[in-house]
Amino acid sequence: MDASGKMVTLGQITDMRTGEQWSNQEVFMPNGAEWRFDKNAPEPKVWMNFVDELFADRTDDVQLLQEWMGYMLSGDTWAQKGLLVVGPKRAGKGVIGGVLRKLLGKSMVASPSLKALGDTFGLEHMVDKRMCLISDARLSTRQDTAAVIEMLLRIIGCDQVDVSRKNKTALTLELGVRVMMLANSMPQLGDDSDAITSRFLIINLTESFYGREDTKLAAKLERELPGIALWSIEGYKRLIARGKFQEPQSSVDARSEWYNENNPVAEFIEDRCVVARDQSVENSVLGNAYNEWNEARHAPPMNTQVLSRKVAAMLGPKITRVAGHGARRIVGLGLKKMAF
């Protein structure tokens, strides 16, 4: 194949999603890269050493990265997941992103800011791309946040989106990009549900190599791209055989923490409440407790009825809101007894 794409034979695989067996299945990996596929490429030793340094004995994280990179190469979107890589500066985030950029080819990668996803022409450069690589996942205003969350959900969920283009006719289409975000800390998205956080797998990088970076690492890894591609394809084969990403517990825990950080009501329930059928609390009492708790966090107060609706949306059938003739209350939720 020429540089516009590569055909790779995967051998026999059973797709656990459909039960279908693939025999010598070939997968086309579209890209505009300069490297050449080599089924006999040697093991990418520099890459493997780099991965070992990043993750030590965290083999589950290594496997997630391997499966994600294979998923990116394949052009698949069926998993409807994004990846968030979080860590301090010089922790390896940029290296991972750079390797994927070179594997796919720069013509296949869009690199917008996170804020740009909510702008009028923010999607224009994602048409016919394979990866949306957001290298600085930060937002400034609440208005930015709402628009960006909506667009992330639609892109990752493979929904059709309206793409406005400067001096051209707008398009309505399903973007084929997979979203990967790099950040020094968890982005503050401020969503009141887990709709957005549940879409992301999370890899945490903990060690910074600032001041002791290998300035020639990028060049070394570029020479190993055929071997890194084979390593990634092995991850893709494992992903297809399983039918879903095998998420490390570290990712599950990080996503739960991220959800709570973005949702103070969820954090309040975890911190100050008991969810059980034998519990109940008046709306006004719950509202006073929440606003007292929120004040200690230097956050603005919330109207009691708004809080009640958010709690109901969050806990669903676990609770019942009772109006009756007396004070409105929530059955199934109570306040913890605080020790003073």
Please provide a written account of the structure.
It is a single chain. This protein has two domains: 5-256, P-loop containing nucleotide triphosphate hydrolases (Rossmann fold, 3-Layer(aba) Sandwich), CATH 3.40.50.300; 263-335, Orthogonal Bundle (Arc Repressor Mutant, subunit A), CATH 1.10.10. With 340 residues, it is of the alpha/beta class. The N and C termini lie far apart (71 Å). The strands form five sheets. Strands 6-7-10-5-11 form a five-stranded parallel beta sheet, sandwiched between helices. The chain has helices at 45-55, 59-74, 93-104, 142-156, 217-223, 225-242, 249-262, 264-272, 283-296, 304-315; strands at 5-9, 13-14, 21-22, 26-30, 82-86, 109-110, 131-134, 160-165, 168-174, 178-183, 200-204, 273-282, 320-322, 329-335. Strand 8 and strand 9 (168-174) form a beta hairpin. Helix 7 (249-262) packs across helix 8, helix 8 crosses helix 9 (283-296) and helix 9 crosses helix 10.
Give a short account of the largest sheet: 5 strands, parallel
CATH architecture of the largest domain: 3-Layer(aba) Sandwich
Per DSSP, what share of the residues sits in E-state strands of 2 or more residues? 15-25%
CATH superfamily of the largest domain: P-loop containing nucleotide triphosphate hydrolases
State the CATH class of the largest domain. Answer: Alpha Beta
Global structural class: alpha/beta
List the strand order in the largest sheet. Answer: 6-7-10-5-11
> Helix segment count?
10
Q: Segments where pLDDT lies below 50 for 5+ residues?
A: none
What is the H/E order?
A: EEEEHHEHEEHEEEEHHHHEHHEE
Shape: elongated
Q: Whole-Å distance between the termini? A: 71 Å
Query: Could you say how many structural domains there are in total?
Result: 2
Radius of gyration, Cα only, in angstroms? 23 Å
Based on DSSP secondary structure assignment, what is the total number of beta strands?
A: 14
Let me know the average pLDDT. 85
- The CATH topology of the largest domain corresponds to Rossmann fold
Share of helix among residues?
A: 25-40%
